[in-house]
Sequence to fold (496 residues):
Amino acid sequence: MPQRSPEFSGSVKLKYVKLGYQYLVNHFLTFLLVPVIAGILLELIRLGPDEIATLWKSLQFDFIQILCSSYLIIFISTLYFVSRPRPVYLVDYACYKPPVTCRVPFSCFMEHSRLILSTEPKSVEFQMRILERSGLGEETCLPPAIHYIPPAPSMEAARKEAEMVIFSAVDTLFKKTGLEAKDVDILIVNCSLFSPTPSLTAMVINKYKMRGDIKSFNLSGMGCSAGMISINLARDLLQSYPNSIAVVVSTEIITPNYYQGKERSMLLPNCLFRMGGAAIFLSNRRSDSIRAKYRLLHVVRTHKGADDKAYRCVFEEEDPEGKSGISLSKDLMAIAGEALKSNITTIGPLVLPASEQLLFLMSLMGRKFFNPKWKPYIPDFKQAFDHFCIHAGGRAVIDELQKNLQLSAEHVEASRMTLHRFGNTSSSSLWYELSYIEAKGRMRKGNRVWQIAFGSGFKCNSAVWKCIKSIEIPTDGPWSDCIDRYPVHIPEVVKL
Fold:
């Protein structure tokens, strides 16, 4: 039976009631001040010219009072401008685009798995089931050393992959922005699983012959959320050093970390992780604010490492045969959900409008004082953000966040398409997602972007950016040759 009109009418009325409530609470001060100002104006109109002149004379101050007041205003203004944090701008960024020679179609991946694990047909079948439901497409890439049968990981091969990914991303960034290596004051490189000596930052400094007084930092072992940790570190350094430029490089080197055993929990990363990297140009210089794309508003970091289950849910270890790999726990999604709750509890008061904060507070008080079984109110983060970049860690991660945050398909489109086209590129996935939004021409001046990442430890880190100018559709970038094909339909299961 079709729905009756009263039900539809009721839903429309409820919608307008909610919109009215949001507008009233978010503009409460405006509604409060308008009648006060109107009353003052009416009272002035009612008074005669002589009464107004008398009132003005009574408000006049002598010279000493005016001078002291001026000094006080100047002192407070100076104190405010000196103590407030320096704005941090994202001038531009570049994402690495792997060559087609590194492409790994499903058929190729499964053929290699059958040859490598010829004595373990159940492990091969398990990988096939994971790949069918992964949400990855046919164009994701693995480094050259993994294309050998069997794979040939080595220190030399890992360094070559690092040079290929990092140098390509930095070269593209320098070309896009006109930035020169000698202008870089701060360099941060994050790569979780590959930490050679000399460090990756030293490799970049040597390649580009950067200055001897550059402040360099190499972050390792911090998982897929290390990109947000790098942004946080860069922000803190830019607060301490005025008129400075920071370059952040986020990547994950796959070569030495391809698991060749049969433990199922360790075979999962083989199916999901792919090549990727990004280089980001941050600055606190006023001259860069004119050409910058975004301004950093907030960075919120949540760490659940005190809990044993959270600590071990993403764990690098050796299997019974002595083969090392990354083990993913079955509790991963539940732990990620708890980390997300802690993160949004912290970031909510910073970004949510007053109407959502009031509803959340009322729900919290109701659960505490009246009925603990009341369903907690989930704030509508769509009122605070225009775009969402959820770490493309896997289909289940995106599904869970879409459900918990009550997001539409369009809000998670960038994450799903990034997973489909590039796979899980670890800490750099958020920048492929931001690039997707720009390539679709959806980024406008004033838009707010929420980047959310999860990583081993267990961590949930997020950053909030504000677009400071409408961004034109780029003619280059990782999506330039395929954006017209996206979004694509991703079935629940792709039969191989």
User: Anything to note?
Assistant: The two ends are 41 Å apart (CA to CA). Residues 1-12 have pLDDT under 50 and may be disordered. The chain has 17 helices and eleven strands.
